[in-house]
Amino acid sequence: MEILKKPILTEKASILTEKLGRYAFKVDHRANKLQIKTAIEQMYGVNIEAVNTMVVSGKAKSRYTKAGFVSGRSPKYKKAIVTLKEGETIDFYSNI
């Protein structure tokens, strides 16, 4: 099971990072807080103070096509917000 799927790089997440030193990640829905903490510490070499998780429900999407009105949902996912110890940062762009 791959615990970390990808970092969330949105405006809201970048504001969290700048003001509070928190980082957001999309994670596997079966992963618990301890598994998320160890995965991030191993991957980025940082010390983690706290992990908060939430399940984000998918948005309802609809469109009108030749076949008629089509509606569905985007998939739900689990999000982890990680608080690092004072003075530590994660650079997402260093390993590109």
Automatic annotation (TrEMBL):
GO terms for molecular function: rRNA binding; structural constituent of ribosome. The keyword Ribonucleoprotein applies. It comes from the Bacteria. Keywords: Ribonucleoprotein, Ribosomal protein, RNA-binding, rRNA-binding. GO terms for biological process: translation. It holds the Pfam family Ribosomal_L23. Gene3D superfamilies: 3.30.70.330. InterPro entries: Nucleotide-bd_a/b_plait_sf (IPR012677), Ribosomal_uL23-like (IPR013025), Ribosomal_uL23/eL15/eS24_sf (IPR012678). One of its GO terms (cellular component) is ribonucleoprotein complex. Belongs to the universal ribosomal protein uL23 family. One of the early assembly proteins it binds 23S rRNA. One of the proteins that surrounds the polypeptide exit tunnel on the outside of the ribosome. Forms the main docking site for trigger factor binding to the ribosome. Part of the 50S ribosomal subunit. Contacts protein L29, and trigger factor when it is bound to the ribosome. PANTHER family: 60S RIBOSOMAL PROTEIN L23A (PTHR11620). This is Large ribosomal subunit protein uL23. It comes from Pararcticibacter amylolyticus.
